[in-house]
Design brief:
This protein has 3 helices and no strands. The chain is mainly α.
Length: 87
């Protein structure tokens, strides 16, 4: 019985007023996706969310020089973290 009443109300109600809120929600979702995409577009530019490529390459250089028994004074020091961020 209540299903028949519900379908009657759904068929005869005008849902045009829902157009604006749903449009705003869809625009907000796409705008947020765009901003996230732009923030992650270049992962090597040095911002806090980026890949610490300098730190990684310095670690590889240090490891290779240690493997070939290079003198300890010629091995570069590791990069320091600035504000707990690998640069």
């Amino acid at each position: 019985m209540w299903i028949n009443q519900l379908t009657f109300y759904v068929k005869h109600l005008n849902f045009v007023w829902l157009n604006i809120p749903f449009t705003v929600i869809v625009i907000w979702v796409f705008n947020t996706m765009l901003r996230i995409g732009l923030a992650g577009e270049n992962p090597f530019e040095g911002s806090p969310n980026d890949v610490p490529i300098s730190n990684i390459s310095r670690g590889i250089t240090r490891d290779l020089l240690q493997l070939i028994d290079e003198a300890p004074e010629s091995i570069p020091a590791p990069f320091e973290n600035i504000n707990n961020i690998d640069m």
